[in-house]
Amino acid sequence: MKSYGQYCPVTHAAEILSQRWTLLILRDLLGGIRRFNDLRRGVPLMSPSLLSKRLKDFEKWELVERISDAKSGAIEYRTTPAAKELRPIIELYGAWGQRWVRNKLQEDMLDVNLLMWDVSLSIDAKQFESAQTVIPSTSRTSRG
Length: 144
What we know:
Blueprint: H1 9-17, H2 22-30, H3 36-42, H4 48-60, E1 64-68, E2 75-79, H5 81-84, H6 87-100, H7 112-121
Antiparallel strand pairs: 1-2
């Protein structure tokens, strides 16, 4: 990573946060994603090796803790207080994007798989009786 060579807190924050994919990974981590493969689903165009490098950088910058489950061997990434302080910044990015950029999206930017992945994150699967459940639409549309 190349430095701006300035002694300024904004400069140092920009050196970390302005790297490609960084805010998207933080968005997902702050949204509750903990495992590597789940993070990959949130950034499907990012290579696994770059995601791995970013997570190692996050550890170095003390944004995440890498936790290994002794029994299963599963690795989880937990956000630290430093990362949690970024939540309002990321939410403001989203609000700004919704207000100023949303209407300028191109059709090739729409990814239904990513949308459904995002929707699935807000659903508690334990609330359903079977592994496959259809949620009926509550909206009424007239066809004619």
